[in-house]
Amino acid sequence: TVKNDGSQDGIYTATSIHTFTDNIFTSSSQGIHLYYSSENTITNNLLYDNTKSGVYMEVGQNNTISENEFYNNTDEGIYLTGCGTSHIENNTIHNNGKWIHAFRANGISIRNNIIESNIFGIHFEGMITVHSNFNTISNNRINDNTNVGLRIENSQFNTIEFNEIQGNGKGIQFEFTGANMIRNNNITSSSITEIEFTFSLG
Fold first, then answer.
1. What is the pLDDT of residue 6?
2. What pLDDT was estimated at residue 98?
3. Residue 4, pLDDT score
4. How would residue 128 be classed by pLDDT, with cut points 50, 70 and 90?
5. Cβ neighbours, 10 Å, residue 5
């Protein structure tokens, strides 16, 4: 078990090619903080009650996060910024602030996860000149998230397919986006709207 007073990271590394498996990360600032770190595997861990994020990835690629459980992390289960091709799959994420919050992230595959009872389910965002593009969100169960199941903002060329998106505030929200592919999703029982477009073409 990796635990402290909530003011420090559980594990911080600025090197690459590590495997973190069968651990408990709790009551830290970030459970795992990867900084300019690539080709890591994070699997079969329990990450909960961290004061910021369960996993914080800051500039890296070819990382795999699989078979973990994230809950009660104050900010996000997983935060990515400046990250390239990586895989997030077969995780259970519930009761966090945001599950996946990605800024300027490209080529991320998010599939076969259970994402339930967070404030936001998944949030990809960019800025006017910096985007989160060419990401794939598929075969996930994104249910009962308070505000939005999936939010795509200032980003394009993303594929959203074969997801169950049920019982969220808004099912999918697009803002300042275009050229995204949305197909074969089951989007139902949203309390506000199933799909919302704001200054977006899809």
1. 87
2. 83
3. 86
4. low
5. 9
